[in-house]
Structure formats: C-alpha cells, structure tokens
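Many introductory courses stop at the sequence. We go one step further.
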Amino acid sequence: MLDSINNFSYIHMIIAVDGRESVIPRHFCEAMEREAKMILQINGNQVLACKHERDHMHALVNNPVDLSIDDNVQMLKNATQDYVKKEGIGSPNFKWQDGYYAVTCSASEIGNLVNYIEGQQEYHRSHTFKEEYITLLETDDIPYKPEDLFAFVDLKED
C-alpha cells in the first residue's frame, strides 16, 4: 500500500497567455478547461481542479512521480496551444508565456485550493491576475524579481 501512496504529488500550477492577442474569449474558457483536463489525464494526472480564465489557467493535479513537473506543464502548454489553433479559438497566434508557477501542496490544503480554483471567475471580479500572482508568491515565500514575473495583460478595458 505504501507504494501507491507515494506514486503522486499534489501540484498547483498556473500558466499565462503571451500577450493581448492570446487572450481567450470568455465563451471558450470552458472548452479550454475540458481540453486541459483531458490532456492532464492522458499524461497520468488525477485532475482535482482546473479553471481557465481569459489570461491564465490554474490546475491542481496529483502529478505522477515518474513525470517531472516541467514535462507535465510543457505537455499541457503544447497540447492546449495546438488545440486553440486547431479549433480556431481566439487568435491563430495564440501561445503561452515561457514561465509557469508550480508548487507542491499538502493533502490538508487540497479542499481549500479546489474551492479557490473553482472560484476563479468570482475572484477575478475584484482582483487582477497580477495581484493574485504576486499574492501567491508572497504567501508561499517564493522570492522574485519584478522583471522576472509574467508580462501581465490588462483586461480592464475588455
């Protein structure tokens, strides 16, 4: 039984679109979530939560230990990028930014994290992605330099 307990690790990951032309129209966010969940599951993840906002995506997964976090994120980015282009969702120049956020989580955090991720649309009525991201970095005690952060898209005029 111990082997099965150690075959996964909980990972909260965030990826961000690259520039205004990569912003996903709100009515396609659910389709992106379905595609992302399918991709993550195909790669061996148990998907606990996944929400796509117009300028970024959160996923909380039980990442298989034989799959590096970097490989997992890159496969998700590549496959969803291909999906956007194939389906004609948004810009044909859609792409994700190079970096990503990924932190391990304890089992005791999962319930709160699922609720947080599932509540993204409501959360972003009063907070920008930039505010959210900096708060997460600071809450997790992750040192950062402002010049190393995502290039955030201002969605206020949309």
